[in-house]
Amino acid sequence: MLQKTKGIVIYHTRYGESSAIIHIFTRELGMKSYIVNGIFGKKKKDKFCLLNPLNIFDFEVYNKHNKDIQRIKEFKLIRLQEKIPFSQERRAQTFFITEVLKRILHGESVDYKLFDFIVNAVIFLDSDVEGIENFHLIFLFQLTAFLGFAPNKKNAEVYQFFDLQEGCFASQEPNHPFFLTSSETKLFTRFFVCDNNNLPNLAKNVQERKILLKSIISLYERHFPWFIKINSIEILNELF
Asked: Consecutive 10-residue runs of the chain (240 residues): their mean pLDDT?
């Protein structure tokens, strides 16, 4: 059965000498894996764009039920990335984002709003805007709304601690170790007043970015026990 869908390349794994399995988050079919033959062979120029993370395509794919790995009949790149390939900072953020998505996107659950959010995020990352060094932070924060654990901003202006386990602000230290200190909480409240339009105000220096990244990653770890260490964090800390 042939199916037309849009899809975002998340990552790939090499298969044999010239093939690869491309893991794609599709709009109509959820997370899917497709084997592509000859991607490292003589015709690699035609297919090599399928290896680039966060590339967005129109696909026509074979969709056979009860089959883990499918095949792609046709594909067309929707938008050529203009900034990401030539920016070390944007490439690092791309690897970080795909590493996060790799851990949270599982199965064939269809989520149109999540798909559209990621597409718009990729387009924004590939644009020329101020404060792009803070993009990965706001992306993680906004993503929580689609994953079901968006932090509750009630009492953000009056309470001194943020409870990572409950996802809310607290007037005193919780009776467990999973919370942000007073100074960390003060920085964390910026997530509620910053968005893509005022990114420079989210983190104003390297130290603030490190604290905010550690805080939001800690929030994810509380809700995804299997959310293991993100390897690209060290690269982000060095660049930003």
From this structure: 95 93 96 93 76 96 90 95 94 94 86 97 95 96 96 94 96 95 97 95 95 94 78 73
List the domain range (segments joined by +) for residue 169.
84-239
CATH number, domain of 48, equals: 2.40.50.140
Torsion of Cα atoms, 41 then 45 then 49 then 51, to 10°: 20
Predicted TM-score (pTM) of the model is 0.93
69-77 and 30-36 as β-strands: parallel, antiparallel, unpaired?
Answer: parallel
Do 129 and 148 have their domain in common? yes
E strand spans, 166-215: 168-170, 179-180
Q: For the chain, what is the domain count? A: 2
Bridge partners, 14 (sequence order): 20
